[in-house]
């Protein structure tokens, strides 16, 4: 997975962290959790606030 695979990342995060308050999470935690996902292999420095917001939105959608 790469940073642009927001829906795959969201699905992986939901599996790994099903009890997290997705609406009120810290982007520092989100960044760390994405990097820890199995299959994630993108450069940690390529992340930015826009990408993390897209992942958060996809995660909220995944949960609904």
Could you provide a short overview of the structure?
By secondary structure, the protein is mainly alpha-helical. Helix content is 56%, strand content 0%.
SSE inventory with pairings:
Blueprint: H1 6-16, H2 27-36, H3 49-63
Would you give an account of this structure?
The structure is a single chain. The protein is about 55% helix and about 0% strand. It has helices at about 5-15, 25-35, 50-64. It contains three helices and no strands. It has a single domain, classed as IscX-like (Arc Repressor Mutant, subunit A), CATH 1.10.10.600. About 15% of the residues are buried. The mean pLDDT is about 95. The chain is mainly alpha-helical.
List keywords for this structure.
single chain; 64 residues; mainly alpha; Arc Repressor Mutant, subunit A; 3 helices; 56% helix
- What are the segments in which pLDDT stays under 50 over at least 5 consecutive residues? none
Total E-strand runs? 0
Radius of gyration: 10 Å
The CATH class name reads Mainly Alpha
What's the average pLDDT? 97
Number of distinct helices: 3
Strand content: under 5%
